[in-house]
Amino acid sequence: MTDTAGPAADASEADTEADTEADAVGADAAVTTAADGPRRITPTTRVLLHDLAVRRDRDEWIVGRMTTRTFVALPAAGARAVELLGAGLSVGRTEESLRAETGEEFDIADFVGDLAALGFVARIGDHAVPDAEPPRASLPWLRPRHVRLALHPVIPLLVGALLAAAAVVLVRRPDLLPGYRDLLWSRHGSVVLLSGAAAGWTLLLAHELAHLVTARAAGVPGKMRLGTRLQFLVMQTDISGIELAPRRHRLTAYLAGIALNLSVASSLVLVLALTETGTTAHRLLAAALLLALLPLPFQCMVFTRTDLYFVLQDLTGCRDLYGDGLAYARYRARRSVRSVRSVSSMRTVRTVRRGVGAGDRDDDPSARLPAHERRAVRLYSVVLVVGTAACLTFMAAVTLPVDVALLVRAVRGLGPGHGLAGNADAVTVLVVLGGVNVLWLVTWWRNRRPRRSAGAT
After folding, report:
1. Which range has the worst mean pLDDT, 2-11, 69-78, 236-245, 432-441?
2. Within 13 Å, how many C-alpha atoms sit on residue 414's CB side?
């Protein structure tokens, strides 16, 4: 799963969290410096910007600093102001240039304050601006030059050829299609559970490494970590900064994990075709094939910010499809609740309907979005609500009861009266299934702490 925490996401907690939008004018023209505290920005002030990357995206510009993985969407005038300030023009000269080019007035002193708050400004006049410690990347020794071939245009062609070969084999040998029975390759449940967990986590790590490698090839540091998506424990890769790469590179990074799973599955199909049916090797390969394919349906659950979610967000041109969709869904829910509470008579209903005017529209968080984003966000909010409700319902009706039943059975299976094999199976269930649930709780709690701290401040 990718996560752009500037696409998370996997694929990707990208927590892909998406680009931060900002206006071209800020709120304060006094900036704290390392030398002497708050410093006033005057028309003669010049600033030194950090190394910033810029990319045009439709009617806006993405400006960001790769070192700190901080990015912002600016209008054309904002991007032009960044360019002029970076060229060494003073605040006053930048305002004059923008006035001459656009015919509009801009408060560049406040804008510089906003840029400093984002960590984009190194010096204001002769005074250094305090800089935050950059986030650590996974595998920092891996340089873009080491993995530049990951973005070579021939790679998708090779993956496509491998998929086509596997499809031809499956058409000729439909008996190779995996089923759930292929996972039960051993009579011992503990062996099946342990081997499945080992293979599954290995494939998951390889999936995330594919995201990390392709993002690193595009110059994005990337960081892998554990996260939660509803009731799912996931590994995700923060590839914030991929927003500044060309679209082909962005989509390659988002789809790299899925491509790896499909490549592994296709290779296993080809090997299976050469393996004698009924042998232990054949059963192991069939189990591995199913484990490689099992994560793919999850990727279609775009309401949990999976790899395909970031593809969808990129193709629709949205800044934060999940965040905006969630805000719109909450707005609709609040409006529905207010309407239900107001319905006490037909007259009241008519009064409420007449009252649905400018105030309600102003409360609609999607109203501030461009038309193409607004349509996508409103449609996505339906998918978000329906998908989340279905997922949580399945967890309450199926997953949770099964987990509890297995754990209770494992506890009851412990003791001297159950033999060595029985105790081994019970311990395996407790360690694997119980461990995953404990890890989910720990990860969920750890990821919520920064949010509570931010809310408290």
Report:
1. 2-11
2. 11
Residue 354's pLDDT band, with cuts at 50, 70 and 90, is very low
Give the integer Cα–Cα distance in Å for 17 and 138: 19
Mean pLDDT of the chain: 82
Round to whole Å and give the CA distance between 12 and 306: 6
Give the CA distances from residue 446 to residues 6, 11, 193, 227, 449, in Å, rounded to whole numbers and listed in that order.
Answer: 19, 20, 27, 9, 5
Kindly report the number of other CB atoms within 10 A of residue 253's CB atom: 36
Beta-bridge partner residues of 235: 226
Instruction: Give tens-digit pLDDT for 125-181.
Output: 888 888 888 888 899 999 999 999 999 999 999 999 999 999 999 999 998 888 877
- Integer CA distances (angstroms), 85 to 49, 66, 102, 127, 292, in order: 8, 19, 17, 16, 51
Decide if 43 contacts 90 (C-beta within 8 A). yes
pLDDT of residue 15: 39
From the number of C-beta atoms within 10 Å of its C-beta (0-12, 13-18, 19+), residue 416 rates as exposed
pTM: 0.79
Q: Find all residues with CB under 8 Å of 106, minimum gap 6, and list them.
A: 24, 25, 77, 81, 95, 98, 99
User: How far apart are the C-alpha atoms of 197 and 435, rounded to whole Å?
Assistant: 11
Rg of the chain's alpha carbons, rounded to an integer?
A: 27
SS3 at position 317: coil
Tell me the C-alpha distance between 412 and 191, whole Å: 20
C-beta separation of 365 from 324 below 8 A: yes
CA separation for the pair 364, 376 (Å, rounded): 15
User: What DSSP character marks residue 375?
Assistant: H
